[in-house]
Model the fold of this input.
Amino acid sequence: MAAESFWNNREAAQKIIDEANALRGKIEPLLKAEKQLEDFRVMVELGETESPASQAAIDAELTRDLAKFFAELEATELRVFLTGPHDKKNCIFTINSGAGGTESQDWAEMLSRMYARWAELRGWEVEVTDALPGETAGLKSVTMLIKGENAYGFCKAERGVHRLVRISPFDSNKRRHTSFASVDTIAEIEESDGEISIPPNEFKVDTFRSGGKGGQNVNKVETAVRITHIPTGLVVASQAQRSQHQNRATAMNLLLSRIFAQRVDAAKAEMERFYGEKGSVSWGNQIRSYVFQPYRMVKDLRTGVETSDVQGVMDGNLDAFVNGWLRAGCPLKRIQGIKDDEE
Done:
C-alpha cells in the first residue's frame, strides 16, 4: 500500500485495502484481549495486597469488566468459525410462503420484518430487491440483499423451514393455525469477482415499471429489470433502485449468485445437502418452531436453543439461535467439547 503505483488501479487498490482491513479485524481483537487479560491479572494481584474494603471494590470492578470482556471474546470466537470461502460476502436472502395460504403469506411477511430488524441490529444494510405480495395479506415471496461484514456467514444459519403456531387473525372462529415459510440464503457473487461469467446470448433482459414507491420517474419509466437465464430457466428481478442501470446491475449479481450456487451443487453436492435438510415447506421439515399459543416459545430443533421471549425474537434478537448453530457446526468446537468432557 505504500508503493507509488498503488493507486494507479483504484479497483485493485480497494480490494487490497479491504483485505488489509479484514486481517486487522482478526488480529486486533486478539491483541486487545491479551492486553485486557494481563490487566486483569494485575488487578487480581493488586487486590490481594489491599484492605478488605478495597478488595470488595476491586472485585466489583473486575466482575463488571469481565462480563464485557467475555462478551467481546465470544464475538471474536464466532468470527473464527466463519471459515467458508464466501462467508464474508453479502447475502441474498429469500423468504417463500409455504403450506397454509394467507396464513403462511402473513408469516412470510412477519419473517421479513424479523430478519430486517436483526440485520439492522448487527449494523448491516437491507435492500429489498423483489417482492411478490399475497392475494389477501402478507407476501408470497421476498428477496432481500443483506450487505455487511460476514453477512452470508451468519445468515446461512437461517436456511430452512420455519413453523408458526398461533391463533389466526384471519379466522373468525379464532382457531389455532400452523403456518410454514422457507428461508434460502446465497452468497452474493459480483461480476467483478470473476468467479463466473455468462455469455450475452444465454440471458434475456426485460424491463417493466416498478410498482413500489420512489417518485414520478420510478412509476412512469420502466426502471425495473427482469433477467432470464435461458439454459437453466432461472429468473431474477430488481425494482428497488431508481434507475434501470442500477436495477440491471443488481439483477445480474442475483443471477450470477444463483447460477454459482447451482454449479457448486453440481460439483460438490454441498448445496444439495442443505436443501435436503430444508425439505418441503410443510410439516416435519422445520428447523425452528415459533409458538405463540397455547404457550410462548421459540425453539431451534437443530441445536435445542430455546427462549420464551417470543416478542424479542420477532423484533430481531436472533443471535442466540445463529450463534448456537455456528458453534454446533464447528468441528474444532466439537473436538474441544470432547476434550473438556474427558477432563
About this structure: Confidence is low (pLDDT under 50) at residues 213-219, 331-343. The chain has three domains: 6-81, 91-191+293-337, 194-268. The first strand starts at residue 91 and ends at 97.
